[in-house]
Each structure stands twice: as C-alpha cells, then as structure tokens.
Backbone:
C-alpha cells in the first residue's frame, strides 16, 4: 500500500509541474500578444501634444490681455 501512495504522490507532483508549465507558457503568449500597447502610447503622446498646444495658446491669450507691469531699471 505504501508503494501505491508513493506513486500517487509522484503523479500528483508531475501533474502540478505540467499545470504550472502550461500556465507559464499561456501567460507568456498572452504578454507577447499584448504588445499592441504601442498604439495606445502613440495616441496618448498625440493627445498630450494637443493639450500643450491648447495650454500655450491660452497662456499667450492671458499674457496679451494683461497690462505690462513696471519693469525694474
């Protein structure tokens, strides 16, 4: 009976190793497929550039409307 128990333990261990290896491979494949984040990054950069341009225009408009203060000699 001890031999049967030992065999079962080895088979359980081997099944765990196989399951963990399969999970690792599946996760690796998923990460490789998720490389389309570069497009999202490009969109974010373009949006930030537009925001900077808008902010600069607003600052220029504010600066133009404000009366110049006295300058120090």
Residues:
């Amino acid at each position: 009976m001890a031999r049967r128990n030992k065999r079962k333990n080895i088979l359980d261990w081997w099944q765990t190793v196989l399951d963990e290896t399969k999970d690792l491979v599946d996760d690796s494949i998923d990460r490789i497929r998720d490389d389309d984040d570069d497009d999202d990054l490009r969109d974010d950069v373009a949006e930030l550039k537009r925001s900077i341009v808008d902010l600069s225009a607003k600052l220029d408009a504010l600066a133009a409307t404000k009366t110049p203060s006295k300058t120090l000699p």
The chain has a mean pLDDT of 84.
